[in-house]
């Protein structure tokens, strides 16, 4: 019950964030930090809500995709199918949408660098 209320409150704050940019400037960092440090301990429904919050903030251009991509890729290994699907589909959809009209090579290289680094880390972890 408390997790649902917290998730709903976080979604509400994400929806009103464009209207209160000074007051809610640290919302993305707080949500990202919570997911980064406590994702495994949080209930699945709350994890989904928090990922939805970050996706909404990216879609409203309050947060850059690069800022959330590493976190979304790290969430792929926690074993929550709904979160994995939501985060992965958002990354793919965002990159596809970003390159739809014209390719932004600088941004693409930066995203590729993030993904390549994460793939290398995953390979190293599997070898150990």
From TrEMBL:
One annotated GO biological process: protein transport
Coiled-coil regions listed in the entry: none
Keyword rRNA-binding: no
One Pfam short name: SDA1_HEAT
Keyword flag Protein transport: yes
Gene Ontology cellular-component annotations: nucleolus
Protein's cellular compartments: Nucleus, Nucleolus
Record-annotated SDA1 N-terminal domain positions: 12-120
Stored InterPro entries: Sda1 (IPR027312), SDA1_N (IPR012977)
Keyword annotations: Nucleus, Protein transport, Ribosome biogenesis, Transport
Major location (coarse): nucleus
Biological role stated in the UniProt entry: Required for 60S pre-ribosomal subunits export to the cytoplasm.
Similarity annotation: Belongs to the SDA1 family.
Protein name: Protein SDA1
């Amino acid at each position: 019950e408390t997790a649902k209320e917290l998730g709903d409150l976080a979604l509400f704050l994400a929806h009103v964030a464009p209207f209160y940019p000074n007051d809610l400037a640290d919302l993305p960092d707080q949500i990202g930090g919570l997911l980064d440090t406590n994702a495994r301990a949080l209930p699945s429904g709350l994890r989904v809500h928090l990922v939805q919050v970050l996706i909404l903030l990216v879609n409203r251009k309050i947060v850059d995709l690069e800022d959330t991509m590493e976190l979304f890729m790290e969430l792929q290994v926690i074993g929550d199918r709904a979160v994995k699907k939501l985060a992965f589909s958002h990354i793919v959809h965002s990159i596809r949408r970003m390159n739809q009209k014209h390719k932004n090579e600088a941004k693409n290289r930066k995203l590729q660098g993030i993904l390549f680094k994460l793939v290398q880390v995953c390979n190293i972890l599997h070898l150990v």
